[in-house]
Design brief:
Blueprint: E1 26-38, E2 41-48, E3 62-68, E4 71-76, E5 87-92, H1 100-107, E6 113-117, E7 131-137, H2 142-154, E8 157-164, H3 173-176, E9 182-186, H4 197-203, E10 209-214, H5 216-225, E11 234-238, E12 251-255, E13 260-264, H6 270-276, E14 294-299, E15 302-303, H7 311-316, E16 319-321, E17 326-327, E18 331-334
Parallel strand pairs: 7-8, 7-10, 8-9, 10-11, 12-18
Antiparallel strand pairs: 1-2, 1-6, 2-5, 3-4, 3-6, 12-13, 14-16, 14-18, 15-17
Bound molecules: FE2/S2 (inorganic) cluster (FES).
FE2/S2 (inorganic) cluster (FES) is lined by residues 283-286, 288-293, 306, 308, 321, 323.
Length: 336
């Protein structure tokens, strides 16, 4: 799935994408196999080039995939983190795709070499939790697959609630059928059941860690239901953006460390302006969901448009996602 990630809703800490220490930022990978999973969903199995090794990853991690110049997308790693010889990503062809999933489905074939990032993890599994509750909607199942593998390896107690509109478009059912704690629902099938999110959250004991990945509406409902839970026990990962990118311009950026001043013009994003000025800013999703473009704010008030930061983090104004956010003040001073 195309992924975007955010830390536990109850945490005040700002999440910065975690890359394996010492791992190169950019890697070459060969497409070893393409596997059909369900209507519109393929798994792409990637392997290192001869003589090379992939950096290890942890459950819930994702990689950024460089598709064409200027087009990078993030996808969760869906395989068992103990597998050191491959990365697997599940890609759903989005009808409204702006190029990411369509490019992969139409162009990626076994044997080709593609460019990816080292794994990053903004949706890490709390491995010490005595109980883990996983809630997935649609292609949001993919990060849960690596989590399930890890939880099984650790012998931890877990349960999964996975909802898809129809069986035909639900990926990875074969893997899940091995696991009894999986509650799989098809809510648009005749006689199908809806996921009772409120009941799942209400039944979760205080010590349980809850993870939700799916469409924005599902995550927002989940976050609202879980708002009263103990801090740090609620974790979400968005995979489709519903953001209106700020392109109104008419403000300036002071780059405190480099001493530059950059004007953001009408029609461009903060990221556009920074890249044009030669700033070295990493970015992936370009839609406020992955957290890659996070920059510290020293003065001024951003117009936050992202889905990555919590509401508390947005109010604190200590950081901004430059790919989609703007400024409420004539000047923003950035810590770059
Ligand atoms: S590039 Fe993903 S949040 Fe900005």
């Amino acid at each position: 799935m195309q992924t975007t990630v955010r830390p536990s809703a109850g945490e005040g800490a700002i999440a910065v994408p975690q890359t394996q220490a010492g791992a190169p930022e950019s890697l070459k990978a060969r497409i070893r196999a393409v596997r059909w999973e369900a209507e519109g969903i393929n798994t792409y199995e990637l392997e290192p080039l001869p003589g090379e090794r992939f950096p290890p990853f942890t459950a819930g991690a994702h990689i950024n995939v460089r598709l064409t110049p200027g087009l990078t997308r993030s996808y969760s790693l869906a395989n068992d983190p103990s597998q050191r010889d491959r990365y697997e990503i599940g890609v759903q062809l989005a009808p409204e795709s702006r190029g990411g999933s369509r490019h992969i489905h139409e162009n990626w074939r076994p044997g080709q070499v593609v460019e990816i990032s080292a794994p990053r993890n903004n949706f890490p599994l709390e491995e010490g939790a005595t109980r883990t509750i996983l809630i997935a909607g649609g292609i949001g199942i993919t990060p849960m697959l690596s989590m399930i593998a890890r939880l099984e390896a650790l012998g931890r107690r877990w349960e999964l609630h996975y909802v898809s509109r129809r069986r035909a478009i639900a990926g990875y059912l074969d893997r899940l059928e091995e696991h009894l704690p999986a509650n799989v629902l098809f809510d648009e099938e005749p006689g199908g059941l809806r996921l009772d999110l409120a009941a799942v959250v209400a039944a979760a004991p205080p010590e349980a860690h809850l993870y939700c990945c799916g469409p924005a509406g599902m995550i927002q409902a989940f976050e609202a239901l879980a708002a009263g839970r103990p801090p740090g026990t609620v974790h979400v990962e968005y995979f489709s953006a519903d953001v209106e990118v700020a392109i109104g311009g008419d403000y300036v950026l002071e780059l405190r460390r480099s001493g530059k001043t950059v004007a953001v013009q009408d029609g461009e994003t903060m990221l556009d302006a920074l890249l044009s000025a030669g700033a070295n800013i990493g970015f992936a999703c370009s839609e406020g969901v992955c957290g890659t473009c996070q920059v510290g704010v020293l003065e001024g008030v951003p117009d936050h448009r992202d889905q990555f930061l919590t509401e508390e983090e947005k109010r604190a104004n200590r950081t901004v996602m430059v790919c989609c956010s703007g400024s409420r003040t004539p000047k923003l001073v950035l810590d770059i």
